[in-house]
Amino acid sequence: MSMIKYALSGSFKNFNNKLNEVSIKTNKSKASLMFDFLRCFLITGAGYSDFLNYKLYGRKNSEIKEYATIKTQDKFYEIVSPSAYKDFFSIKANFLKNFAKYIDRNSFYEGSLDELKEFLKSTPEFMYKPVNGLAGRAVKKMLAKDIKDIDTFYNEVKKNNIMLETYVHQHESVASFAPNSVNTIRVMTFCYDGESEIVMAIMRFGNGIADIDNFHKGGVAVLVDIETGKLIGNAYDKNADVYEIHPYSKKKFDGYQIPNWEIIKKTCLEAAKVNKNIHMIGWDVAVLDKGCTFIEGNRRAGWDLPQVLCDRGRKDLMNYCLDKINKKEGTNYKV
């Protein structure tokens, strides 16, 4: 995709509507904001969502250059997480198989009708997921008792390439923020030459009503101190609205101690070494009463959350990882 096509991908109508809102908030004219957008595009190749998510209209050129746009992320991930190995993580059924050591739950995918009946008989609550879906699209919690016509449901699952998984019952303390969703930690690891490290951690909570905690489905997110496992500061939603307390439970975010943090760190650092071809992974971790489990692993973990929560571009973190490869291989990778 050319840079111009990339920048103009997405809905101009939605972008234009958002600019109206930004114009009112910032007291800048639409024409001025459009000029800012073109400036950001020329500097970094920023698209509509980059411009709005990171509030690039209010930043200096030196700040804009530090943001990893979607185009930047494409370049970075093709180096650290080549698409040739994507199915190891992206296909959810493969992920469950490849990381079975860290996952203790039943699943159903591409089985027979009798196997589906057995799964529903033994699994009263489960998650319904497209096997290669992104951003929480079409993911929902279901109850086995609500399925009245198993034959029809079986055909739906097969037609839409759906995987079913046992619902994870999380630690009571984590559930108290938003009880209707499994509230996960996005732990980003970088592993190269047998050495793994955590480079970023973010806690995500559902809005209290939705079945999932995804940022793109109304959830909120807050930074995690990697050393202590405590939440840092306030939470943000997709619209960059700020929350000192959870809008549903009224629980305060800052200073909250994630249970079992040392176990979570150890698990992610160990699992990061399983596939030597994929160097950066975004793990979605659920906290259990006596440990943790993986919900999924993302070969291309998005950088919208890290950059929104840090309120600055995080190309520095990407280049930190690339420098480790450069030092070993004599390359000159840079984003």
Supply the key terms:
335 residues; globular; alpha+beta; 20% strand
Structure description:
- It is a single chain.
- With 335 residues, the protein is of the alpha+beta class.
- Helices cover 37% and strands 20% of the residues.
- It has 14 helices and 11 strands.
- It has a 7-stranded antiparallel beta sheet with strand order 9-8-7-6-5-10-11, with helices on both faces.
- A hairpin with a 2-residue loop joins strand 5 (184-192) and strand 6 (195-205).
Strand content: 15-25%
Q: Which regions are unreliable across 5 or more consecutive residues at pLDDT < 50?
A: none
Largest sheet: 7 strands, antiparallel
The CA-CA distance between the termini, in Å, is: 18 Å
What's the layout of helices and strands?
Layout: H1 3-7, H2 12-26, H3 30-44, H4 48-53, H5 61-64, H6 70-80, H7 87-90, H8 92-98, E1 107-108, H9 113-122, E2 125-130, E3 140-143, H10 150-159, E4 162-166, H11 172-175, E5 184-192, E6 195-205, E7 220-224, E8 231-236, E9 242-243, H12 261-271, E10 280-288, E11 291-298, H13 304-310, H14 315-329
Antiparallel strand pairs: 1-4, 2-3, 2-4, 5-6, 5-10, 6-7, 7-8, 8-9, 10-11
Short description:
With 335 residues, the protein is α+β, with helices and mostly antiparallel strands.
